[in-house]
Amino acid sequence: MTITSSGAGLSTLAQQYADDGFVLVKGLLSKEEAAYYRQRSHDLLAQLNRHDDPTWKSAMGLADGATRLQHLHDAQFYDAEFAKLLVDPRFTDVAAAVMGVDNVQLHHTKLFVKPPENGSPFPLHQDYPFFPHTYHRVGAAIFHFDDAPVEKGCVRVIPGSHKEGPREHNPEGSFHLTEPAFEVATPQPTEAGDVLFFTYLTVHGSGVNTSDEARTTWLIQYRDPADPPTVKTHDHSLGQGMMLRGVDPTGRSAV
């Protein structure tokens, strides 16, 4: 189910998120805003001239040949326009509502570009094993800056999979699930401006971009500041602990 952000209350979004582990909010950004951020994303990657490829070794089996991926952690530290989007109430109000809290804290961000024709896939996984937290009030929002149909390697999810809690992952080649099969996950094709919210317990992945256009997304991982991590990890994320909405009731520093 998809919900148009202008036509549904936050309580409806929160209920679907609780039931399915995700919610696709249509048109959270306008087409013009999405195009603007798409251009800034590609300009930023070109300016920085990064050549590292974060493709998971465990993703190799999902493609017929070699694939590529471009990425950037902490885009908000390179371009203030991304910092503005981090605290945009259209995003933060939904993030708070789906978690059932008032306060939203940043964990990290990643800018991804799947190049045309061979953009790298991601095998099915939960985000949980990368940065486990005590109460599991951790989620993600994927901003789509251009259209992401199935042939572009859109995100796939398994509805309701979050209800089973943390799963055992194979750590080889980055944490991934060996079952269920990738094909059983439900594609979530999107348009520019759509934002997909999901819990860090929701099983998800994405396919190969076989189209002739790049797929451009920005991932924001957020959490309830009152939910402490169980292990110290992801320390390279410069903005971790920044408050995006409300206050940190614990008064502790970023961890």
From TrEMBL:
InterPro entries given in the database record: Phytyl_CoA_dOase-like (IPR008775)
Keywords: Dioxygenase, Oxidoreductase
GO molecular function: dioxygenase activity
Ranges where the record places region Disordered: 228-255
Keyword Transcription regulation among UniProt keywords: no
Entry-linked PANTHER family: PHYTANOYL-COA DIOXYGENASE DOMAIN CONTAINING 1 (PTHR20883), PHYTANOYL-COA HYDROXYLASE (PTHR20883:SF46)
Name listed for the protein in its UniProt record: Ectoine hydroxylase-related dioxygenase (Phytanoyl-CoA dioxygenase family)
Organism: Kribbella pratensis
